[in-house]
Amino acid sequence: GAPRAAHAWLHPPRNLLDMDTFSKSDPGGWLGWAGGTAWHGHGTAWQRSSAPLSAVVVLFVQGSGSSEWKEFGRTEVIDNTLNPDFVRKFVLDYYFEEKQNLRFDDPPGSHSTVLGAQDFLGQAFVALGEVIGSQRGRLERALTGVPGKRCGTILLLAEELSNCRDIVTMQLCANKLDKKDFFGKSDPFLVFYRSNEDGTFTICHKTEVVKNTLNPVWQPFTIPVRALCNGDYDRTVKIDVYDWDRDGSHDFIGEFATSYRELSRAQSQFTVYEVGWGSQGKVLRTPHTRANPALRPQVLNPRKKCKKKKYVNSGTVTLLSFSVESEFTFVDYIRGGTQLNFTVAIDFTASNGMPSQPTSLHYASPYQLSAYALALKAVGEVIQDYDSDKLFPAYGFGAKLPPDGKISHQFPLNNNVDNPSCAGIEGVLESYLQSLRTVQLYGPTNFAPVINQVAGVAAQVTDGSQYHVLLIITDGVISDMLQTKEAIVTASALPMSIIIVGVGPAEFEAMEELDGDEVRVSSRGRYAERDIVQFVPFRDYVDDSGNQVLSMARLAKDVLAEIPEQLLSYMKTRDIKPRRADP
């Protein structure tokens, strides 16, 4: 997914450990957030032991799969206080789909090579997702690391940087355009160009073709402001008018130039542009409001003569409507209180092999986790940062249960039918391993029961405050395809997404069909409202060197990348706006 830029600041720390005998500690502070491709970070709170007394907090970052820490930056120094508020912000890229750990600590050798002789004030560990997912993007964490001492707390604030997120909807028509077709009139369409810094132009939108008319009315269309002018409201926007020809050799009718600021004035009054060629057209606009649109437009810009050829008037284009609305982001909803609820469903069919045998996909050696456990940890450790209670319902399917050997496709891994939730990802792993010791792997591979179970929970709260993510981990060919398609079509109207991870060497053509990237899933004539399924085969993410951490990072990045857009698509179709965070 594209990075969502943001910054964070550290209002740190509070009630710092006082290391000075005759004055308060002079701490430096760390602040920052945003995200980046699997960035990890750590920083350190330091105080100099030599005069003048001062301190600094240093942020270090570590790339995904790397053991090397590099300094990212450090705060300003604030003198003689145990409760400093720091000004400096660190700007990073934020990726929902990646685990981005931040750590405040003492890097080896830093006393002499980086920071000099200084007193250590404490350390803290936090994931960037925890800061984003906390209420109002504000997280307080205790500082530790000095034996027998209370080191105080550190306060992290996260904020998404605005990047011209407005979206424009506009409608245009034309009047008395030139006739270009020998046996008819013209088939006009518009082409919009954004100007670049070097004076060139880049195409950013084409309207539909309106056939056989000199007075076309084009359909309203929507375009991001950043695509139209890159956020520069005064940058030139050029609009060409063409007559469509079947062979692609479209005839040029004329052009005119404007800007986003000029276009935006149409929110209160009509704007009429003269179309021409041989020179830039003149701009016409009525000085009156829409309440009196019949008044004759007034010429605002003088006609510019072309040195090489005489200016030719080819008609006019009128901007009929222009409206702007903000494009909400995933972070807007998370900061507004939307919770991600994570549910796990694990395949317990016999095709996985006996868990006690090394050939089994459920086999966990003393040295490494099974493919099921790896997939669960990879996805769960990212999702859990956005769930406040860290309680995750976990189910199994395709097993015979004791004592009577009844086959179940939706049994709680913790053996508690009334409350199938496990405490954290470690709790899910513990219940999963316990179930492997108590149930008999059997079959068939049915998805519909667990999808319907989560859909039933999701249907209870549809106001945007809850969004559900179901992770299904399986090894084989699905047995209830028709029922699963029906369940997915129903679930697509609810606040939920489905991730399917295929483990083992099997072919997964049926899973690709459920993914719906190419063709939307349908059942009995009904099509899914949204694409809510993401499928990946785990074997594509196994690192050749056997690095499980890198394998997990790669898997999480791909399977979670679509979740923010899927959440946004649900909110948009239901016209749900993010709740405004408390100031």
UniProtKB/TrEMBL annotation:
Q: Which GO terms describe its biological process?
A: cellular response to calcium ion
**What residues does the C2 domain cover?**
135-273
Q: Name one GO molecular function term.
A: calcium-dependent phospholipid binding
UniProt keyword annotations, A-Z? Calcium, Metal-binding, Repeat
**Keyword Calcium tagged:** yes
Pfam families hit by this protein: C2, Copine
Q: Which stretches make up the VWFA domain?
A: 341-542
Tell me the PROSITE patterns matching this sequence. C2, VWFA
| Family from the record | Belongs to the copine family.
Q: What is this protein called?
A: CPNE9 protein
